[in-house]
Amino acid sequence: MISAAALVPHPPLLLRELGGAQDPVADLRAACLATVRAVVAGAERVAVVGGADTARRWDPTAEVDVRRFGAARPRPAGASPPPSPPPSPPLSLPLSLGVGVRLLAEAGWGGPVVAHSLAWDAEGAALEALAVELAAAPGRTAVVVLGDGSARRGERAPGYLDERAFPFDDAVAKALADGEAAEIAALDAGLARELMVTGATAFRFLGVLGRQQERRPEAALTFRDDPFGVSYLAATWLF
Fold it and tell me: Most Cβ neighbours (<10 Å): which of 34, 109, 220, 228?
């Protein structure tokens, strides 16, 4: 059964080694950790779900390759070089799952974890199938869903300014705060692509997951901001 679900964003800066000596997203990190802790409390396993180029199940013990997003922290002077990698290392996690697994570790979760990616353009049937699969697992499963909102909320945003981003993000935030699963599941995928919403599939999956539950979630929007012109939302849904 699904006991709870969290939505958190997945900017690369949540990988702490990319941020330098002073954490540039300290408030966002604190909110994400509090959100994750709220939904994993009392769970027996956690499923991490996010968008990626392909849909598949991943090894949650794998790491995300931080070199894709900037230089990792330099090794202290005099430190020994890292050991040679094993002959067949696990595939590097996509950013969404890498951030999700890292947040779980920082939140103190030490129980079982499964990690699933959904294709960026996943259809409703794929979302329904994964939601059913996770709910069918024995015990209480908490789901951590990773997704960013629009990336066109300013002239310095990755996608420049698009005024449509503001009502779009407002609607998503309200649906998350109110636990409106049907509205999230019916997100306009075409508009989301135009607004560079990398979390569109993740948002829709959360809506599908919520729609399958027997009762409306006890919902709370725990964070909202748009640093760098990108909408970051965090929310908890308790079932």
Answer: 109
pLDDT in tens, 50-102: 999 999 999 999 988 877 776 544 433 344 444 544 444 568 999 999 999 99
Alpha-carbon gap, residue 140 to 106, rounded angstroms: 21
Q: How many other β-carbons are positioned within 10 Å of the β-carbon of residue 158?
A: 14
Contact 52, 116 (CB under 8 A): no
Q: What's the CATH fold of domain 2-68+90-238?
A: Protocatechuate 4,5-dioxygenase; Chain B (3.40.830)
At position 31, the amino acid (one-letter code) is A
Name residue, tokens 């939601």. Answer: 131
Task: Please provide residue 102's backbone torsions phi and psi, each rounded to the nearest 5 degrees.
Answer: -65, -40
Amino acid occupying residue 139: G
pLDDT, tens digit, for every residue of 99-151? 999 999 999 999 999 999 999 999 999 999 999 999 999 999 999 999 999 99
Furthest C-alpha separation in the chain: 58
Nearest to 101 by CA among 141, 55, 61: 61
**What residue spans define the domains of the chain?**
2-68+90-238
In this prediction the pTM is 0.90
- Which of these, 158, 204, 147, lies nearest to 181 by C-alpha position? 204
Nearest Cα neighbor of 109 from 210, 38, 172, 4 is 38
CA distance 106 to 124: 32
